[in-house]
Amino acid sequence: MIDVYFWPTGNGKKITIMLEECGIKYHVIPVNINKGEQFKPEFLAISPNNKMPAIVDHDAQDLAIFESGAILQYLAEKAGRLLPRDTPGKYRVLSWVYWQVGGLGPMAGQAHHFLRYAPQQIEYAMHRFRTEVARLYKVMDVQLGTHEYLAGEYSIADIAAWPWVVRHDWQGQDLNDFPNVKRWFQAIGARAAVQRGADVGKEWVNFSQPMSDEDKKRLFNLRDEDLKKTTT
């Protein structure tokens, strides 16, 4: 059994999707990042960078792993699925996994922050991250113009990237501008395992509702007078 320390974000959904694809039994332990639960000592003992997701594999001497890319690679090797064993194939996949964890995820996350959550609208930052995400989508679109999936066959590279494309609207992107990405996105979203993994925890967060003032203060380290400035 694997414990998954989880919140329904792009990075969190990578892991539940992968577990569903591999048919590995898992138990979800919520880590409400809006309430600061990622800073609890018991979680930091597993994930010292105070980020979720993280896992503990009780079938492997309680092995704890943090960072979503490392978790995906571990699960692929554990299950013998979705990561080629030959060296060229393996590194074609891992190149795209590292592209996602080092590029698409952080840039899309910054776009989410400045376009949706930031207490102040900063035009430079909004433009900077919207256009950088568009550039990364174009990189995917070119690759997917000659490959069915990012590294050829369906793999952890696709599982890494797909959850971050789910919120393309939060990033100021229109998938009609990236037809190959749109085709890929719809094909992956039709997979039953992806749907099951993406649904985990969906009832915990209402993304259509604005963030509360208390959560804004906690996340952005605002004082009451700072918060007032952003709403007047």
Query: Which range best describes the helical content: under 10%, 10-25%, 25-40%, 40-55%, 55-70% or over 70%?
Result: 40-55%
* Number of helical segments with 4 or more residues: 10
- Tell me the Rg in angstroms: 18 Å
- The pLDDT mean sits at 92
Beta strands, count? 4
CATH architecture of the largest domain: Up-down Bundle
Major beta sheet summary: 4 strands, mixed
**Count of the domains:** 2
What CATH first level of the largest domain would be assigned?
Mainly Alpha
Our estimate of the beta-strand percent is 5-15%
Strand order of the largest sheet: 2-1-3-4
Which blocks of ≥5 consecutive residues have pLDDT under 50? none
CATH topology (fold) name of the largest domain: Glutathione S-transferase Yfyf (Class Pi), Chain A, domain 2
Structural class by secondary-structure content? alpha+beta
The N- and C-terminal alpha carbons lie at a distance of: 50 Å
Please give a structural write-up:
The chain has 232 residues and is of the alpha+beta class. It has two domains: 2-81, Glutaredoxin (3-Layer(aba) Sandwich); 87-198, Glutathione S-transferase Yfyf (Class Pi), Chain A, domain 2 (Up-down Bundle). 55% of the residues lie in helices and 8% in strands. The chain has helices spanning 10-22, 41-44, 68-79, 87-117, 123-144, 156-166, 179-189, 192-199, 213-220, 224-230, and strands spanning 2-6, 26-30, 54-57, 63-66. It has a four-stranded mixed beta sheet, with helices on one face. Helix 1 (10-22) links the parallel strand 1 (2-6) and strand 2. Helix 1 crosses helix 6, helix 1 (10-22) crosses helix 8 and helix 5 (123-144) crosses helix 7 (179-189). The longest helix is centred in the middle third of the chain and has 31 residues, at 87-117. The N and C termini lie far apart (50 Å). The mean pLDDT is 92.
